[in-house]
Design goal:
Layout (H helix, E strand, L loop, with lengths): L1 H21 L8 H27 L9 E2 L11 E2 L2 H32 L4 H32 L3 H18 L11 H9 L12 E4 L2 E4 L1 H25 L5 H13 L1 H8 L9 H17 L1 H8 L3 H36 L1
Helix pairs in contact: 2-3, 2-8, 2-9, 3-7, 3-8, 3-9, 3-10, 3-12, 4-7, 4-8, 5-7, 5-10, 10-12
């Protein structure tokens, strides 16, 4: 319990520092600033992974005292206890998978901001409070998922099936535009509160002639929270394919979520160039889903370090997705060059 409280205090301190000091005044977040903050959050996650290693290796604050249900086998019916190296690998793999899946979330957030015409200087505020809600929602979902995995081993096969279905859907879905005005929660908010015609600074609510009024900024926040909940249904099973240790699942998810804001501002301007990233993310989900369904034979074939191989495969797939996207973009520019010069 102490380690959970300490981690939450640490996270809320970082968030308070972020909003209260570094982003106290609304401003347009530049790509350079976003890349800097992305490096900060990645560095913090890597630094925390060192704590994970030593915490589980030396059993600090009760870490690593219970078996990990994901590692169930005939020899270990309750799962194996994580040592420092296995906990480190699972945290890093989970963080990489969750952070990569956040890229898909970035596409949707960009569309939502465009739909609601959210001024660029207010977008960070929406994402900040969206992150607070996401941490709470995912914490609840992870708690429920951890209990299910601990009590019912077959639930892992259900999660594996969800991941494979999601991977196929992501690969084949060409999809149309989302219409936020048809979202159930947005319709309920509009029905119960009058909505202002324009933005009122960074305010989500104002007092007007009709009483308490909702600004479009609040509607954008509602949609960001809704889409994160939808994405969590796909991403939470992905982390349970790697580990069912609640602390590793929650902390890797939180660090991935914290990096989502800076990742959005860093990628928002180049999303059009990431043509094959959806295919790469689909392949990642497929690999993780298969690993969940065939955990024992894969471990027998690859040995105890199979999580290291899984991390390598995930990084390789993401690398191929980025390289393929850049090559596709280069070919497109080369094909357009003669037409533009005429």
């Amino acid at each position: 319990m102490v380690v959970w409280i300490a981690f939450l205090v640490f996270i809320f301190f970082l968030l308070a520092l972020d909003l209260g000091v570094f982003h106290r005044k609304a401003h347009v977040v530049s790509v350079r600033e976003a890349l800097t903050w992305t490096c900060v959050w990645v560095t913090l996650a890597l630094g925390f992974s060192a704590f994970v290693y030593f915490g589980y290796e030396y059993r600090w604050l009760g870490l690593g005292m219970t078996p990990d249900p994901v590692d169930r086998s005939a020899a270990f019916p309750d799962g194996r206890i994580n040592n420092g190296w296995s906990a480190f690998l699972k945290f890093i793999t989970g963080y990489v998978v969750e952070e990569s899946l956040s890229v898909d979330n970035v596409f949707v957030i960009a569309m939502l901001f465009q739909y609601f015409a959210v001024p660029r200087e207010y977008q960070h505020r929406v994402l900040f409070w969206g992150i607070i809600g996401a941490v709470a929602m995912r914490g609840l979902m992870i708690g429920i998922g951890a209990q299910l995995v601990a009590q019912f081993s077959w639930i892992l096969y259900v999660f594996g099936g969800i991941l494979i279905y999601t991977a196929i859907r992501m690969a084949l879905f060409t999809g149309g535009e989302m219409d936020p005005s048809q979202n159930f929660i947005v319709r309920q908010v509009r029905r119960r509160f009058p909505v202002t015609d324009g933005y009122h600074g960074e305010h989500f609510f104002i007092r007007g002639a009709q009483g308490l009024m909702v600004t479009p900024l609040a509607l954008a926040l509602v949609m960001v929270e809704t889409t994160d909940l939808i994405f969590a249904v796909d991403s939470i099973p992905a982390i349970f394919a790697i580990t069912a240790d609640p602390f590793l699942v929650f902390t890797s998810n939180v660090f991935a979520i914290l990096g989502l804001r800076s990742l959005y501002f860093a990628l928002a301007g180049v999303l059009h160039a990431l043509h094959y990233m959806k295919h790469a993310l689909s392949a990642v989900l497929l690999v993780v889903g298969v690993k969940m369904l065939a955990h024992e034979p894969i471990e027998e074939a690859l040995g105890e370090n199979f999580n290291l191989y899984l991390l390598g495969v995930v990084l390789m797939i993401l690398g191929i997705g980025v390289v393929a996207s850049l090559l596709h973009r280069t070919r497109e520019e080369a094909a357009q060059a003669p037409a533009s010069s005429d």
